[in-house]
Amino acid sequence: MSVAIRIARRELRGGLRGFRIFLACLALGVAAIAAVGSVRVSIQDGLAREGAVILGGDAEMSFTYRFATESERAWMEANALAISETVDFRSMAVVEGETGPERGLTQVRGVDDLYPLYGAVELTPDIPITEALAMRDGLPGGVMQQVLADRLGLNPGDTFRLGTQDFRLTAILEVEPDGASGGFGLGPRSIVGLDGLASSGLLQPGTLYDSQYRLLLPEAANLQALEDDALAAFRDTGLRWRDSRNGAPGIQQFIARMGAFLVLVGLAGLAVGGVGVSAAIRAYLDGKIATIATLKTLGAEGRTIFAAYFLQIGLLTALGIVLGLALGALAPLALAPLIEAQLPIPAAFGIHPAPLAEAALYGLLTALIFTLWPLARTEQVRAAALFRDATGKSRTLPRPIFLILTAGLVAALVGLAAWLSGIPILAFYTAGGILAALLLLALAALAVRALSRRLARSRGMRGRTALRLALGSVGGPGSEATSVVLSLGLGLTVLAAVGQIDSNLRNAIERDLPDVAPSYFFVDIQNDQLPGFLDRVENDPEVSRVDTAPMLRGLITRINGVPAQEVAADHWVLQGDRGVTYLTTAPPASEVVAGAWWPDDYAGPPLVAFAAEEAQEIGLTVGDEITVNILGRDITAEIAALRQVDFSNAGIGFILTMSQNALAGAPHTHIATVYAEEAAETQILRDVASAAPNITAIRMRDALERVADALSGLAAATSYGAGATLLTGFIVLIGAAAAGERGRVFEAAVLKTVGASRRRILASFALRSGLLGAAAGGVAIIAGAIGGWAIMTFVMETSYEFEPISALAIILGGALATLLAGLAFALRPLAARPARVLRARE
Length: 842
Description:
Elements: H1 2-11, H2 20-49, H3 51-55, E1 59-64, H4 70-79, E2 82-97, E3 100-111, E4 122-124, H5 129-132, E5 141-145, H6 146-152, E6 159-162, E7 165-175, E8 189-193, H7 194-197, E9 210-216, H8 223-234, E10 240-243, H9 249-286, H10 289-297, H11 302-334, H12 336-342, H13 353-376, H14 385-388, H15 400-421, H16 424-456, H17 465-475, H18 481-516, E11 520-525, H19 530-538, E12 543-559, E13 562-563, H20 564-568, E14 578-582, E15 592-595, E16 607-611, H21 612-618, E17 625-630, E18 633-643, E19 656-658, E20 669-676, H22 681-691, E21 696-699, H23 700-739, H24 741-753, H25 758-795, H26 804-824, H27 827-831, H28 834-840
Helix pairs in contact: 1-11, 2-9, 2-11, 2-13, 2-23, 9-13, 9-16, 9-18, 9-23, 11-13, 13-15, 15-16, 16-17, 16-18, 16-25, 17-25, 18-23, 18-25, 18-26, 19-22, 23-26, 24-28, 25-26
């Protein structure tokens, strides 16, 4: 090792020439993963640090359909220093316009005088929230977000109506401190006082609303002990508990999953960088063949030479990782103001060791995977190469030990990604996709070279000198086709897959769903309002279909007598309350996939039909018992049937359908879906809202637009990750062009000697680059389309349709990128004088 260290030290005296692409590829890949991880941890730390502000209290107890009972209030008062009561629901904000009433869907929050316990509501003009909601001139005050005020044409001082109660808009809501805790909402936020809501008619029995009680606790309070005590005392009343340890669980989970997904995209970037690392090492070692042969002539063993170059690459790998970690740690700090401006939640930006260590591990493993094979070639250089001027590339495989080590490192990298990401299945699929894409691109590179050789010799190329030279160069020895197709192709593959997924999701929302989706969802239809509502919509010639169903909300608390969270805590059906309905007549027999439906006049113990797919996921079968808490009352029902429920058509669908006698006497409302021509939608809304102001209408087109906006954000974030991968590929591309510059200088000198013009030589270089880029883009389209199809089919569980516009852009982009890189390194070959170049080769 002492000899190897001495050789490595002396070799490194020559500086970093030849390793710039190596360092850039490795540093950029590590930096992308480190930056994504740092932002993710910053947001998670911000959520933890500001958990009480985000939640609106140290802890929250919430109920559906009802307010807290006396015993529940007594428990809160015994444990909390202060209690703030709020209520949250959807409604329609109404204003009187010049052509009649104008309406807008809004998420209403009714608050008391203590709101907010933590943080501050920011308003324009800057006034306290208690002053903004105070009663003036006989009208309670209210605030709303600017987008809703603009939609309704409101300014501070104007009047709007919720239900049957008028409110005066006193300010525009700029910041709602606990807004992130509410999750995804279909309408902009409005805040009014609870006293003002009392006479609005919106909080009737059976109306869908959530009441929340935010608790200000003593500093020494044990949150876990309080949670256990509250759930033990009120578990069967439908209580839901949250506290400042996880004030916004939905956002926390989303950020964790999104961050993990982007790290996996970053691994694709590292794989691209690995191709560049491998190419850079091969090019470096090709220039060291004479040195290696000399060392062997002097008696150096193969393992000594391997160790010498391994140490060099190891030191440079460490340098590349350190540069990447520095960039990945500093970039989020520099961009913190921009990132925070786009976030609805606080973030604690800083230097976070955990994501940096994760990125360093990924970088180290990737460097080892892509350097072992090229370094193993040092053992294949023979001393005779010094005298034969043999610089050709060896085609033999490395010794089995290197193949085993490479396979073990790949397994370690995939296992590490599966463990650290928290989404192992996606990690395995991503790794499989990257390996499959690399294999497909490698085979494509071989096919491109073989086809180019054949075409270059064909009769059709006679008279097309520039094209023939380009094809001969692509298919000849020393071609950079493999490096270009692998590096650029993998980056374009990720970008192509993202483009296909994004376009298919948009098509599903903007084109497919509106063809089958209802125009409106109407909720909170009281029993005595249902006949009038049906009379209006069913007799409208523009309405093609109307569906209605009784609507309650229930929380599944037990399964076969065991707390539901212990059976399948991570299933979405058990995370919060779910819709519950009943049918007066049996559904079509085709919908019942297991068990049997009860008679229409059934009067026995409660029965329930469960959605078949969700039952299978949870592990429920016919005969099992579930306990559902509805309005604070536990109803234990036997599963009599499993029912096929289709949620894909955006119509009415319920996980739980109970026998009618099980819900006898429970106050409830009805929901309805109305399928109508677009031209009739406005008048239907006006007539229904005028007759029953408490009924809330959700326009499906507006809801789909909000979903599309959310998906656009996801697509943009993923595109940034794909862009980083593509940038790495472009750097590798530049490295390949730079590595081939010396060969092009000699080639240009020979061509000039036999009479070729600069224009023809330049055309040959340009065609060569364009052909390689188009080949990489074409293969990327195939691989990206396969990846997009797999995700849409198996993950999104929807149809897939190939999107040609983004595919064409990928091919053109690949050709343009290689063309620019090739032309950038064509100036020196074109300017070289043939005599000087040829003399130097003697």
